[in-house]
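Researcher: Re-running this chain for the archive, since the previous output was lost when a drive failed. Same request as before.
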Amino acid sequence: MYQQPVIPLAVPTVPKLELKIKCKGLADLDVLSKSDPQCFVFLMDPKTRTWCKEPIGKTEMILNKLDCEFVKSIVIDYRFESIQPIRFTVVDVDNNNPAWTAQELIGHFDTEVGKIVGSRGRTLAGRLEHPTRRSSNRGTVIITAEEQSQSKRLIKFNIEATKLTKKGFFSSDPNSFFIIHRAGTNGVFSPIYQSPVIKSKSNPLWPEFSMKEIQLCNGDPDRQLKIEVKKFKDNGRVTPVFTFQELLNTQLPQYFPLSPMPAGTNLMIRKMVVTEPPSFLDYLAGGIPLNLVVAIDFTQSNGDPRHPQSLHYRNPSGENDYTRAIRSVGNILQCYDTDKRFPVYGFGGKVNGQVSHCFALNGNPQYPEVDGVDGILAAYWHALQFSELWGPTNFSPVINQTAAICNQHRSGAIEEYYVLLILTDGVITDMDNTVNAIISASRLPLSIIIVGVGSANFDNMNVLDADDEPLRANGKTMARDIVQFVPFRDFQNSAFGGEALAEAVLAEVPDQFVSYMTQHNVRARTMPRADTMQAMNNGGVSYAPSIPPGSPIAAHIQNGYSFHSPPHSPSLHGSPSISRGPQGITNRMSYQQGKN
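Model: Regenerated structure tokens:
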């Protein structure tokens, strides 16, 4: 029988700050061209008072620019009551390695979040410094902070330009793109989106794209927006200025003349669709569980478990790095699992004289589940007694096995989501097969977390992480990012090692979860904002709500009613209740139980 997952009590919301970053006068470290800057942002470990090894975020890389504005912003928690040291590291990117240490350092700027917020216009400029070349001019980084709104709305655009002639700054059929800028609270425009380049088209129609409202206008529909149409590797300056509210109130398509281009040269917003997709918490409240699957490395490189140098050695406290990682991640995910029974596998070990890359740690391949986190640990210690460490390190079998479990449970009335936790000490030996397995799994309700244990070189894991470039193989591209890799050693000396590890490895799961649900049209039982519902009646603006426009319920919403629906039951046996409140539409949910 289906059971509602137990969701931990909510904690007070921590304000979020969006940091926009630009650089001026950067040191030119390239010989035949200019530097290709990228900025990494780091926070400080509260216990060791040293900079965290992993950045809290990074911008995109910009080609051949010494003065640049990054499109990608960095979002951090803001804690007024705490000193929050923060470091901005700017590098010149020379290769495809995603690690900042693999690039040439331009310089660091160290400050505190409070100093940025307390600066005039919430904008702080700082001089970049190189640790060994302090006297050299490395350039300036400029940071602007703005509190991020809580809007969940998503805006989908379809944009075209017409008659981009060969005259003027477009001297030939233009390879064109556009950049959307948003005015800050200080009135200064910053880039928030850059389109792909359309090659050799006088009437380019760019691919449809979506933006969160917090990114577009930070929840303020009267915030000014500006669109620049540019020629690739050129500085086109054509800037229609408008607000999101103006688009909501106008008939689409809407034409904007591109000055100083000839008459008939226009930017056209063909379509704008306003949606309010459910959040991660909305889906959990709607009864979709998170299921944990664990896979543990049993290869020889871990060392003999009887020796203290082994990664599988059980120290006097009864722990090792494998068990600490299992506890920190498992204790969080088990809160969202309905039955708290987890399949647990080993890979790279020899069982009954046969090498296996996916064997059940409880010895039962037909029913590999164990009870709770303690059951995972008990099965792990027991498996070390009956299995022999062997090799090589192959990931694809456990990924394919978990994918099979996902497919097995997709036919029910309730969609389920899975998180595969892989703990390993070494370098993958079946990289091609693993890439293919991940690409296939990216179309399933699955996230993959890889925790590297020990001191091995884990550079190849960053390829699987695919934060910057999606995985491709055999003509296929991954449907969405589903992999997160974290080396355990980065958290061993942290004041809150277990909590910090769990936060790092689980940080991307909510977005990966929502991405899957959105792509596959899985809806949570929540209601959108009233102004979102009203947007469907304004001009040519489209709206794609969870409740179809024109339905009786939608009609009541138009009249200022609130809809109360069962958020947990897989099937509705009672009737939804409709009530009128003084504030119009609300997001509250109530459950009126009907009879079976």
